[in-house]
Design brief:
Elements: H1 13-42, H2 48-65, H3 73-77, H4 83-107, H5 109-115, H6 122-137, H7 139-147, H8 151-174, H9 179-200, H10 211-246, H11 248-261, H12 263-281, H13 287-314, H14 316-324, H15 332-357, H16 361-386, H17 388-409, H18 417-443, H19 449-472, E1 480-483, E2 489-492
Antiparallel strand pairs: 1-2
Helix pairs in contact: 1-8, 1-12, 2-4, 2-6, 2-9, 2-10, 2-11, 4-6, 4-10, 5-6, 6-9, 8-9, 10-11, 10-16, 11-15, 12-13, 12-15, 13-15, 13-18, 13-19, 14-15, 14-19, 15-16, 15-17, 16-17, 18-19
């Protein structure tokens, strides 16, 4: 594989990356608020048991789909590789892999569901196997949009798919279809958004196998696919253990708590995955540039992830009651603990993309493997001592281990990466603590959960914004104009 032929000069990569990050962030925020509104309706139509059955299907789908395209989309997203050379072969390999894995998943759906503690999940697993196939079909168009930092097109695809996908979800849930409602709506959404992305790319590459490209592609992609596999095993091992030991109702409560706790990650994940890796890869071996990019990116991740996690932690009970209803209130203590994990995971996702961007996908694979070795017994031990909350504690311990190992893997590529990260994150952490303390104090003044959530959230955000404003200012648009009464226009560039 040879160097890429960029569609725009290298010096403009960071500017495109910033705009791409803005579009990704907007996409994530809009979709998150939209999904929050939909889920607030749907969880009142389905039981924790139904939600738990779907969680079992999600475990299988997430793990299998993580390796569906063999990590090859990143070969196109990397700006140091030429898509004209690799895209046709990537399309062939991704299709072959996704078709094979989708077929195997459909055939093995029943034994997999039984092994995870819920035979009822077999049919949703079969439906979600279609999603694995679609992932292979849309690998190349999606990666091309990421490569060119055209996240605005990805936002458009998500927005177009949102209404039909969630309309079907509500309709099927109201009809009593339970877990199948979630499964079929996911397929519809993926199909529509994928077709929009296909229509959005400027260049289409038909599948064509070029034998000389296969070896280099697989040498890069397979370790990354393995790392993705281990990541999703890591993320879903607790679901599997809880489903088998405590049953689907408890699993449904835990999945809801984990979903809310993952808000920082879900808001940032598409931004980080869609922008960080191609941006980091553009820096090649320039340690000074990489260090500056890490500092800036980590500061932004902390400024966005930490306040969300902190408010979820201190306002867990009124948040669950107001948004999802009283019957889900048992998920609140789990949410309080998992909120810490969600914030830290956003940072680990950034470091993982940095390692992949500088060509160290093998290190990510090894670290994720070590993490699973620690997580599985930790979750089992935590469940035995503290119930569902114990599983959350296990995740916190493991993500701290992952962060430490990622920093260790970066020691030869960046000077004092741990110091850079600490300096970048300490300010957002202190500001978030201030906001959390104010939110907790204000929420405690009200017995009504609506008032508690509204007043606590508003005062907490205000306190955070005041404390974090000097750090937020540099991330405002490149030129900010402020017209003061009787004064000239002030410009910041």
């Amino acid at each position: 594989m040879t160097g890429a032929t960029d569609s725009f000069p290298r010096e403009r990569v960071e500017g495109r990356a910033v705009r791409g990050a803005a579009w990704s962030g907007l996409n994530s925020v809009l979709m998150k608020f939209g999904n929050l509104a939909i889920m607030a309706v749907v969880v009142r139509l389905v039981s924790p048991h139904d939600f738990g059955v779907f969680a079992v299907a999600v475990v299988v789908h997430a793990i299998v789909s993580s390796v569906g395209e063999l990590g090859l989309s990143s070969c196109i997203s990397r700006r140091d590789l030429d898509p004209e050379r690799v895209a046709p072969t990537v399309a062939v390999l991704a299709l072959m892999s996704s078709i094979s894995l989708a077929a195997l998943t459909a055939v093995a759906a029943e034994p997999l569901a039984v092994a995870l503690g819920s035979g009822e999940a077999a049919d949703p697993i079969r439906v979600l196997s279609i999603s694995i196939f679609l992932g292979g079909v849309f690998t190349v168009p999606g990666a091309l949009l990421v490569r060119e930092f055209r996240q605005g097109k990805i936002l458009m695809a998500s927005a177009i798919a949102f209404l039909p996908m969630n309309g079907l979800l509500v309709l099927l849930a109201a009809n009593g279809d339970g877990a199948m409602a979630f499964a079929w709506s996911r397929i519809v959404g993926q199909l529509i958004s994928g077709l929009v992305m296909v229509a959005s790319v400027d260049r289409h590459y038909w599948p064509r196998l070029v034998p000389r490209e296969v070896g280099p592609l697989l040498r890069f992609g397979l370790p990354l696919a393995g790392a993705n596999l281990l990541t999703y095993v890591l993320l879903n091992a607790d679901y599997a253990i809880i489903g088998r030991t405590l049953g689907t109702e408890q699993l449904g409560l835990y999945m809801l708590a984990f979903t809310v706790a993952s808000w920082p990650t879900s808001v940032l994940a598409s931004t980080i995955n869609g922008v960080a890796m191609p941006a980091f890869s553009s820096a090649d071996t320039d340690k000074v540039r990489l260090t500056g990019m890490l500092k800036s990116a980590a500061r932004l991740v902390g400024l966005l992830a930490f306040p969300i996690g902190m408010l979820c932690m201190v306002l867990a009970t009124p948040l669950i009651i107001v948004v999802y209803g009283e019957r889900w209130v048992s998920a609140a203590p789990v949410l309080s603990a998992l909120a810490v994990y969600g914030s830290l995971f956003s940072v680990s996702l950034l470091l993982s993309n940095l390692l992949v961007g500088i060509g160290k996908s093998g290190a990510v694979f090894i670290i994720q493997g070590m993490s699973i070795v620690v997580l599985v017994p930790s979750v089992a031990w935590g469940l035995s001592l503290f119930g569902l909350v114990g599983a959350a504690y296990a995740h916190i311990l493991v993500i701290i281990l992952v962060l430490s190992l990622f920093l260790l893997a970066l020691r030869k590529s960046l000077v004092s990466a741990h110091r850079v990260l600490l300096r970048a994150l300490s300010g957002p952490l202190i500001a978030s603590l201030c906001g959390g303390l104010v939110a907790m104090a204000a929420a405690g003044l009200f017995a009504d959960p609506v008032l508690s959530l509204a007043v606590g959230g508003a005062t907490g955000l205000a306190a955070y914004a005041g404390a974090a404003s000097p750090m937020l200012w540099p991330f405002l648009p490149h030129a900010v104009k402020v017209r003061l009464p009787g004064k000239r226009v002030i410009e910041r560039s």
